[in-house]
UniProtKB/TrEMBL annotation, chains A, B:
This is Glutathione S-transferase 1. SUPFAM superfamilies: GST C-terminal domain-like, Thioredoxin-like. Pfam families: GST_N. Residues 23-87 form the GST N-terminal domain. It comes from Hartmannibacter diazotrophicus.
Length: 216, 216
């Protein structure tokens, strides 16, 4: 039974790798599990067929035989639990790696997504520019705390884990903002993530979808 | 070894139960694990002692012997994994329950927190009221999707799980907004959560902290 995930037929970021299927692709590449991809248009994502799998009309989903999952965090955790390579086996280190998955999604990513919302969905509102400065300040607080914690370490907690996969994925959203450059150890941490062969394969796979779409 | 969690000495919601320690208390009550609480002032939360446990200077933390965890989602998952009562044991249903934890935190809560930020932290900004209407519309979309999915079911996925604990906790943030009342099945779902004896004990315990503080 082959794992099947869903992804945007036409990624809004034009292949920059920020859609959440890249995170799932990366996890599957790290553990060496092959997968199929079913591409969905924005219209198809809101149709009954997809809503039966994903009640919020989003991508990615994950199908493996009878099991259907959505939520990138849950999918990656499920992959990490069933295959070696993304979570330590000892109770304590395992719980700490899982903790960093949640920290990436629930403490570091929210102000970053708030920035994206203000920049894109509220670009024509009169407050857009002024509010962007507020969100940037909130992001700087989180980055500063994360930077202090990481220090000179290579990864957040010993060896590379699903927690790093998620944190690097979240921080990658800031690449174009210049904010990451204010924290050199975080910029280097993200670069180490991007340098992993599994990440490179995941990135190339999602880029190929965009390239195929835009070629004549 | 007794589990110790941290909580606000002076909860910003004045005992309404919305601080995240209530979620952890609820999980511990569901599985019958006694716990101690260490209360922290806002100043103490930003001091080195606490930052060594929680690099983002937040509550709650969870200490059990040598293991220190932060992030409510990670703490509740750790509790659910080690004690019966919050996760099914079969692989598929277990993964689906974990999925709902992530859905609560990453899909349903973000627009709700955005509303809170706009209402509280940006109350004096010129855009506050207008932006509040935007966030409310975004919340309605998520609530509508969740309501459609829940239908007449008692809980999200078979029996009560950590996914429901988290989803009810997230929806409780909307009690004062009136938005929940637009979706009667969600309002009833939240009421079922609040009616659980474990939730009642957790709520009473956090309220007692506020009551003790404000009594002469």
């Amino acid at each position: 039974m082959t794992v099947t995930i869903t992804a945007f037929r036409q990624s809004p970021d034009r292949g920059a790798g920020l859609a959440r299927d890249t995170r799932v692709r990366w996890a599957l590449e790290e553990v060496g599990v092959p997968y199929d991809v079913r591409l969905l248009s924005f219209r198809e994502m809101k149709e009954a067929g997809h809503l039966a799998l994903q009640p919020f009309g989003q991508i990615p989903t994950y199908e493996d035989g009878d099991l259907v999952l959505f939520e990138t965090g849950a999918i990656i955790f499920h992959i990490a639990e069933r295959h070696a390579g993304l979570l330590p086996s000892e109770t304590g280190p395992r719980a700490r790696a899982i903790m960093w998955m949640f920290a990436a999604l629930n403490t570091v990513e929210p102000p970053i997504l708030d920035r994206t919302t203000t920049k894109l969905a509220e670009s024509e509102e009169p407050w857009s520019e002024q509010r962007l400065r507020l969100t940037d300040d909130r992001i700087r607080i989180r980055l500063g705390q994360l930077s202090d914690h990481l220090g000179d370490a290579e990864w957040l907690e010993g060896g590379f884990s699903a927690g790093d996969l998620m944190m690097v994925s979240v921080l990658l959203r800031l690449k174009a903002s210049g904010l990451l450059g204010e924290f050199p150890n975080l910029a280097a941490y993200v670069a180490r993530g991007e340098d992993r062969p599994a990440y490179k394969r995941a990135f190339a796979a999602q880029l190929a979808v965009f390239t195929a779409l835009s070629s004549p």
